[in-house]
């Protein structure tokens, strides 16, 4: 074995492979071509031969550069998100095995032609990243068999006809600018040229996502909206089918569209799909910074956009579903988004629509980009809260209660321009995604104050702080933030109701009412006084506002709160129906209530998640 390796050729230079794992810069190819340049019996003088060889090499290099540019331009219009119909996927090789595989690849690059099985991406700094092709389709599954996802996509398109392209336009104008998963120009180029190469699961999720905005698009509002729950069920089946048959980058995009879909009816299913998306994203190397990689710019933008959205959903669902986040800061190095990532990309300059080619102006794109960047950085702050909340060892989180407050305040101080007005003053809500950002900030602020409230209660209970006014002051501060949320919802207009919203915002509204109930039950000591509680009146005002938005604008984000708390508010505001056992005479008595008490207070807590 040693002698065989000793006789092996020396490792050659690193080969660059194209998307199909074909060598596109193999130096040995030029040697072969230049050796066949002259068939005359009398060879030219050495100087002339050398000049001819150099000229041929230059021509060869120019041809290769032109081919690379053509390939890159083609990929600019067909990014991986919509051109993912190949039978193979590139799976990342773990860092431990990368070095071993690199040594073997260098040996085989000269000895055999097996280098096509691996793709090594070198960066300017850090460790190289190696990908290996894996078969996407399960073994034994016929390639010619039409997938369930294709069948479901056809069903949805039949329901949307003849408004399919108008619905897609609605998604890009209302949704994609605020959560930029797809490049609009590239999507339409691929959709109009070769729609059959677009992932059917991705199309299903996109169609379902667009139906949310049906009544806010004049061209669609004149027609009856299709059954959105039926469409989401079809999209779910398409996604699960693609996860089994041929998962790829487009599958991650489809899952994110589905997890963020409205109305929210399946938290457990969303959690399962999000976990699959995280696992698939890491398998495809999306957690690595692609900026220095020698790959097309379109693929770099695509990978980063998907990763940013995945982080946002992972953290927001962790906050609302009560489960720890899947992603940890130490396992990825993708840079945070900036406005330049969106305003300087080719897709920002050319966003053709399906009909007229009209798009939102540069100001709208820049405004939506600034809101998205602020939302992402807010979830970076939220991640520290989640580490503190879910840490089984309180000291393992590395963040104290006071440091968490400092992080949120520092985030607010870092904001500039229109985004700062959204957060500090609650204005400029006309910007795309601004209302959603405002509610997200108030939700994190309320979370901060609830953490401080519980912290001060524990200190008072253990005798570390004997100031009786500390806990009362924390209740007042947190209640004031809840009041800001109530007033914010009351002042929403039709433009904001028809704008982009994260689906998890529905849990923020429900949590606000629950906290107001807590304030009322803790601070009042009799049913008669409770009926006049300002906290309870705020809860009723929020429920009334949500009911109004549902009736006038079909706004679904309040459905969960209405299902859980409408009846409870009526009971607590009617003295003869209230129960004296609900009241707490001392802050220290506020612990975890008995399960039967929860069932009595919230009889329909999970009714909105039951099949109808």
From TrEMBL:
Keyword Nucleus applies: yes
Segments for region (Disordered): 29-86, 338-361
Gene Ontology terms: cellular component: nucleus
GO molecular function: DNA binding; zinc ion binding
Superkingdom of origin organism: Eukaryota
Residues in Xylanolytic transcriptional activator regulatory domain copies: 270-343
Low complexity composition bias: residue spans: 50-73
CDD domains listed in its UniProt record: fungal_TF_MHR
InterPro entries: Carb_Metab_Trans_Reg, XnlR_reg_dom
Keyword hit for Nucleus: yes
Keyword terms of this UniProt record: Nucleus
UniProt biased composition (Polar residues): 29-41
One GO term (biological process): nitrogen catabolite activation of transcription from RNA polymerase II promoter
One of the Pfam families matching this protein, by short name: Fungal_trans
Protein name per its UniProtKB record: Xylanolytic transcriptional activator regulatory domain-containing protein
